Amino acid sequence: MLAELVRQRTYFPDRASDLSVQRLGLPHGSFQDLALRTGDGLTLHGWHLLADGRHALDRTAWHRELAAGRPLALFFSGNGGNRSYRLSEAEILTQAGSDVFLFDYRGYGDNSGTPSEAALTADARAVWDYAVTERRVAPRRIVLYGESLGGAVATRLASEKCQAGSPPAGLILRSTFSTLADAARHLFPVLPVNMLLHERYASLEWIGKVTCPILMLHGVRDLVVPHYLGRRLFDAAPKWSADGTPIEFIDLPHADHNDVLETDGELLQAAIDRFLGTLARRAS
User: Fold this and answer.
1) Domain residue spans in the chain?
2) Residue partners of 190: CB distance under 8 A and separation at least 6
3) Residue-wise pLDDT tens digits, 153-182
4) How does pLDDT run across 84-103, given as a tens digit for each residue?
5) 2-283 maps to which CATH number?
6) Nearest-angstrom CA–CA distance, 36 and 40
7) Residue-wise pLDDT tens digits, 4-43
8) Using CA atoms, how far apart are residues 26 and 165, in angstroms rounded to an integer?
9) 52-70 as b/e, with b when 16 or more CB fall inside 10 Å?
10) Which of 7, 87, 140, 212 has the most CB atoms less than 10 A away?
């Protein structure tokens, strides 16, 4: 019973029957609906957001834009809501000159299925495979962006791809934790977390094998995932990437967990602008 309570406090999906671009009235020419099939036969729905100032009005133009050589950010969301909640944060990336693939996990938004650590891991791999295999985007152009729980999903994916010899261009983690158990101990201090948790999201074990450049950002006033858990993850990461880029941790001095854009949005934008700009210069 207590274990189920902990599980219920891990995932907070907001379901919706239709999150299509047309249904939500998103800007014509800047957003495109996407869909992919997972290895176990589910369909994941998402969006392709074009970099700021770019437009495409037909399928050929969308393919041409994706092939133009800009960075492509794969956005991995936190544990609540659905992709419509992430528009403002995804636009931080588009304003920095990156295209974005923003998919919902299974069980979120207009996707069927049930979330779990294994399921979200499989979904992340499916998004990567869709970008690299089906849409022919080179791994060296792909930036993984994870916020909160999505940071754990992104970290594992980055670690797997680095170990497989196809590292992404970079990994950006916003307000994420060292392990799910560490975060749960903070939120449920009276519960025997180690006995109750069946899912681990143990980024602490994965991040040491990430060889691509890493940028981490965390709110100093975060009451959901305390700042010290972000620092714990930072301390476990390699200090330098394989190409000589130093890992970077940026304090967001006024931010809690869910108000980063409102409190420190300019700092977040500047940091991501700089990080993506550095990646682009190193790739040229």
Assistant:
1) 2-283
2) none
3) 999 999 999 999 999 999 999 999 999 989
4) 999 999 999 999 999 999 99
5) 3.40.50.1820
6) 12
7) 666 677 899 999 999 999 999 999 899 999 999 999 999 9
8) 37
9) eebebeeeeebeebbeeeb
10) 212
